[in-house]
Amino acid sequence: MYQVSYFLLFYIVEIVVLSILLLILFFSGFFSPTKETTIPKTTLDLLIEQVKNSNEDKDVLDSVMHEFYTHFYNISSKSKNLDSWLKLIQEITMLDYMSVEQVAKFRDDLSKKNPGIRREIKQAIGISLKYREDNKKKRKQ
Fold it and tell me: What are phi and psi of 40, to 5 degrees?
């Protein structure tokens, strides 16, 4: 009825087609563009944005400082949010919201509460004060 070559040809074609389909599925899944996972923003990141967008509005900065003193005044040196915490401190002290004396008192208070990161606090606030003074000099010129 049917020759053996017909069955052999049928199986070879079937194996080739299945192999091609499997390769297509593998490479389309492997090389497909992956969705970038976005890291959710922390409360510290939101406070940093508020400080940056405050236009030195005293009410906004007062609410940020209240939130900071309530929830973030003390932080561990091993905290994953340490960089954001230091960035928030820099953003706050970079503005003319506090006088230099108030910033020095703020730095000393933070250093006493967080002795494990005293050096990082002093360095972050020192950099922001230097930047603040440089900006004042540029505005006067």
Answer: -65, 145
Sign (positive/negative) of CA torsion 65, 67, 70, 73?
negative
The candidate with the shortest Cα–Cα distance to 125, out of 99, 100, 97, 89, is 89
Q: What is the pLDDT of residues 65-124, one digit of tens each?
A: 889 888 888 888 888 888 999 999 999 898 888 888 999 999 999 999 998 999 999 999
Helix axes 43-52, 58-71, angle to 10 degrees: 160
Q: Give the Cβ contact number of residue 123 at 10 Å.
A: 13
In tens, the pLDDT along 123-137 reads: 999 999 898 888 878
Q: Tell me the whole-structure pTM to 2 decimals.
A: 0.68
Q: What's the CA gap between 107 and 103, in Å, rounded?
A: 6
- 73, 113 Cβ separation under 8 angstroms: yes
